[in-house]
Amino acid sequence: MDNWNEIRTAAQVAKLGTISAASEVLGVHRATVTRHIDALESSLGGKLFQRHTRGFTPTELGQELLRIAEATDEQFSQLRRISDKHSTELTGDLIVTSIEALAPYILPLLAEFREQHPQVKTKFLQTGDVMKLEYGEAHIAFRAGSEPQNPDNVVQPFIDLDVALYAAKSYVAKYGKPTSIDDFPNHHFVGPMDANPRAPFYKWLTQHVGPDNIAFASNHVPISIQAVRGGNGIGFLTVREVTPHDDLVEIMPSRPEWATKSWLVTHVDLHRSPKIQAFMNILKANRANL
Description:
This protein is α/β, with parallel strands linked by helices. The protein has helices at residues 4-16, 19-26, 30-44, 60-88, 103-116, 169-175, 200-208, 221-229, 274-286, and strands at 49-52, 55-58, 92-98, 120-126, 140-144, 153-161, 163-168, 189-192, 214-218, 235-238, 248-252, 260-267. It has 3 domains: 4-88, Winged helix-like DNA-binding domain superfamily/Winged helix DNA-binding domain (Arc Repressor Mutant, subunit A, Orthogonal Bundle); 92-161 and 261-289, D-Maltodextrin-Binding Protein, domain 2; 163-258, 3-Layer(aba) Sandwich (D-Maltodextrin-Binding Protein, domain 2). Helix 5 (103-116) links the parallel strand 3 (92-98) and strand 4. The relative contact order is 0.13. The model has no long low-confidence stretch (mean pLDDT 90).
């Protein structure tokens, strides 16, 4: 039985005793009430009412249906109360997922969110995997690369990750600093393992640096960053993560074609929820500083 309307109709007849009274309370035609009862009795294979000149008296099966219907209706009322509470109070979890490179931009936003909404527990999942928003694996996903195309998601631009070429001072002391792209064959580089990388800066690198000059290759960007810092070769780092105190030398400044676009992704069913909208308000207030 998947028609709750038929059950509610029969319950009203059991409580009120007549078709006309149930019809008035439910706001439907008397013929609709009769049709619902007939359909429900057919589905159950038993009689719900004894019919007589004064109206309808529920049978034992009808009394049981009334008991179940009232209990179910109370559960629905409780669910509505919980829903009303959730619509005004921010509680529970806010699960955010992102690649590591975007964490420095996101964590201050989460700190402000937590300060404004202390009843919400923020969880940050650092991963390159695509979490399934439709299954609740995350509420907000920050993704880098080409624009996500899932029609069930709401996608908004986040930031462009600016990168530049750097080398450790220890590398420069040993091998010198290239004066131009023409000097690249004389140097070692940290690059991707994939021959056809997706990142725009790695695409550029594979076009200008031969495979023999990739001295250190990794499929994990944080490892590649540590390799550059450790003097394994020249490689890309995001401009934001490099500080004046780092033991690094800029080889080439950032270029627009190297920048990686990033996106904020939410599921369409949750995008207008209070928690996500509260986070979006914080993002809008801080966007100029990102």
